[in-house]
Amino acid sequence: MAPQHVENLNNWMQIMVQLTDQPDSNGAKGWYHDCFGRAKVVAADADSATFEYTVEKSDCNLSDNFHGGGIATLMDNLTTAAMFTRERKYFQFAGVSTDLHITYVSAATLGMVLLLECKVVKVGAGLANTTAVLKEKATGRVLATGTHTKFNTDARMSESKL
Fold first, then answer.
1. Rounded CA separation 2/143 (Å)
2. Is residue 127 within 8 Å of 88, Cβ to Cβ?
3. 135: phi > 0 → left, psi -120 to 50 → alpha, else beta; which?
4. What's the per-residue H, E or C state across the chain?
5. How high is the pLDDT of residue 157?
6. Residues whose CB is less than 8 angstroms from the CB of residue 87 and which lie 6 or more positions away in sequence, other chains included
7. For the structural domain made of 3-161, what CATH number should be given?
8. Among positive and negative, which fits the CA dihedral 31, 91, 81, 9?
9. Are 121 and 129 in contact (CB under 8 A)?
10. Are 162 and 150 in contact (CB under 8 A)?
11. Are β-strands 142-151 and 48-54 bridged in parallel, bridged antiparallel, or unpaired?
């Protein structure tokens, strides 16, 4: 684990929490805020990051299992975050998803502590590819795997939009 990569990633995640800190009309701050505010970086290097995340009631379906849409959102956001472990020439504004594929293997239950291992496969001028493995921290049991492709929107964005 390289300290500068953890620091870069924590800084980016803190910016995301600040950008989403205002509650909506119902008082909720939403998934971005929960995801980046509750996920803890436990390891990072130039092209990967591992996050710890505890399943809370708001993450669960009626069976007290982590909702599949919540898992997909967590993988979407944290594979994107993994691209910010270091400075890159492209994807300064994180881009947009073009493909997100999740394979659900086993249930994650209320209160379970999870590890999400994210790897950056490739970042090019137009597309970025990442992978993720969601595991139960206590046992290492795989709960879900994912691949994520992102399209670069840097040309459409500007610093003033942040």
1. 27
2. no
3. beta
4. CCHHHHHHHHHHHHHHHHHCCCCCCCCCCHHHHHHHHHCEEEEEECCEEEEEEECCHHHECCCCEECHHHHHHHHHHHHHHHHHHCCCCCCCCCCEEEEEEEEECCCCECCCEEEEEEEEEEECCCEEEEEEEEEECCCCCEEEEEEEEEECCHHHCCHHHC
5. 67
6. 8
7. 3.10.129.10
8. negative
9. yes
10. no
11. unpaired
> pLDDT by residue for the chain (162 residues), tens digit each?
556 677 777 777 777 777 766 666 666 655 656 777 788 899 998 899 999 999 999 899 999 999 999 999 999 999 998 988 877 777 677 778 999 999 999 999 999 999 999 999 998 888 899 999 999 999 999 999 999 999 988 777 655 454
Question: Which residue in this structure is represented by tokens 């994107």?
Answer: 80
